[in-house]
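Priority: medium. Attachment 1 of 2:
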């Protein structure tokens, strides 16, 4: 188990891994060892006891890192790290609402569009927000909010 534990430490020191990511890495690296799943499980338990692996921290820090993006983008990042859908939903719920985040991003982006016609601004904002992973209804809500405060014509 010490070789397995040392390999796990090496991977964790290189980058934060979720439990599932680390299991996958160790399974590939030590696939020839008999009863590898059991040994990996013991290693993971020990790492958790030592507070060297913490899925809540990893998910939360990833969500914070990408909070300028939409829920769809954040969920995809967390899925890549091996988190299940319920855990992902809980993590996303801890962030400000997607609408608030999208509105903040739109307000930043809009400053660079002063010279554009209102319809061109709308189209560009829609593409921008969509490319950030915000869902369509949120994008249109943001545009409506900006229109309601007369921001579409006076973004600067």
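Attachment 2 of 2:
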């Amino acid at each position: 188990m010490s070789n397995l534990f040392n390999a796990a430490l090496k991977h964790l020191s290189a980058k934060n891994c979720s439990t599932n990511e680390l299991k996958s890495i160790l399974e590939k690296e030590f696939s020839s060892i008999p009863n590898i799943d059991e040994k990996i499980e013991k290693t993971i338990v020990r790492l958790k006891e030592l507070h060297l692996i913490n899925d809540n921290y990893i998910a939360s820090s990833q969500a914070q890192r990408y909070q300028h993006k939409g829920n769809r983008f954040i969920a995809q990042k967390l899925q890549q790290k091996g988190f299940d859908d319920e855990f992902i939903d809980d993590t996303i719920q801890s962030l400000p609402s997607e609408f608030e985040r999208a509105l903040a991003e739109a307000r930043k982006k809009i400053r660079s569009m002063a010279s554009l016609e209102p319809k061109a601004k709308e189209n560009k904002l829609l593409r921008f927000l969509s490319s950030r992973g915000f869902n369509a209804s949120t994008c249109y809500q943001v545009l409506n909010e900006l229109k309601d405060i007369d921001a579409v014509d006076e973004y600067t």
